[in-house]
Design a protein that fits this description.
heterodimer, A: mainly beta, 11 strands, B: mainly beta, globular
Chain lengths: 116, 117
């Protein structure tokens, strides 16, 4: 059971370039999300999805695009990278229903992105 | 919108001693979840403990326990018998139990815990 897998783990981009951060989960979770973590901050929600074909914005969505064509995958696209998008990005997933530990969120290991 | 405040940017504890990390939150909701996450230098997010707001009993996980004061909107983490491996950033987080807020974890800014041998 791989859990939540993010690729790449490290990436350096030039300003204006585009790229896609990949996220896959093998737990059949309905909910998937992307967070970013900046120095001295906790994680902040970028976008999330509650199922295939359904996405919505989080707290800091500008400059990012997402889609959810399958239950397993939730890629995050940077349309035109800016230095302000230098951050550590986390993908996370969980079951939508259930109580207690049944809807615990699982995080990927993070992707370090530097925009120069 | 909910906010989570961790007022201690850094803390230190002697190995084998006990330390308490503070967290307060602001919400008008009655049903929600609270979490403590540990983030070592690898940046992996590790769930330490969770608390459902409807449960009066404080959650415990081995050496980790919480003091959940719902009326005061306080959720502190106590680490007993501190070990060198406990050194990390610790984040307090909030999630609504239902509605649109249930799709977002709101994090505090973290407390960096150092463990002194």
């Amino acid at each position: 059971n791989a859990g939540v897998t993010q690729t790449p783990k490290f990436q350096v981009l030039k300003t204006g370039q585009s790229m896609t951060l990949q996220c896959a989960q093998d737990m059949n979770h309905e909910y998937m999300s992307w967070y970013r973590q900046d120095p001295g901050m906790g994680l902040r929600l970028i976008h999330y999805s509650v199922g295939a074909g359904i996405t919505d914005q989080g707290e800091v969505p500008n400059g990012y695009n997402v889609s959810r064509s399958t239950t397993e995958d939730f890629p995050l696209r940077l349309l035109s990278a800016a230095p302000s998008q230098t951050s550590v990005y986390f993908c996370a997933s969980r079951r939508l229903l259930g109580t207690g530990t049944g809807n615990t969120i699982y995080f990927g290991e993070g992707s370090w992105l530097t925009v120069v | 919108a909910q906010t989570v405040t961790q007022s201690q940017p850094e803390m230190s504890v002697q190995e084998a001693e006990t330390v308490t990390l503070s967290c307060t939150y602001d919400t008008s909701e009655s049903d929600y979840y609270l979490f403590w996450y540990k983030q070592p230098p690898s940046r992996q997010m590790i769930l330490v403990i969770r608390q459902e707001a409807y449960k009066q009993q404080n959650a415990t996980e081995n050496r980790f326990s919480v003091n959940f004061q719902k009326a005061a909107k306080s959720f502190s983490l106590k680490i007993s018998d501190s070990q060198l491996g406990d050194a990390a950033m610790y984040f307090c987080a909030y999630r609504s139990a239902s509605g649109a807020g249930s799709y977002q974890l709101t994090f505090g800014k973290g407390t960096k815990l150092s463990v002194i041998p």
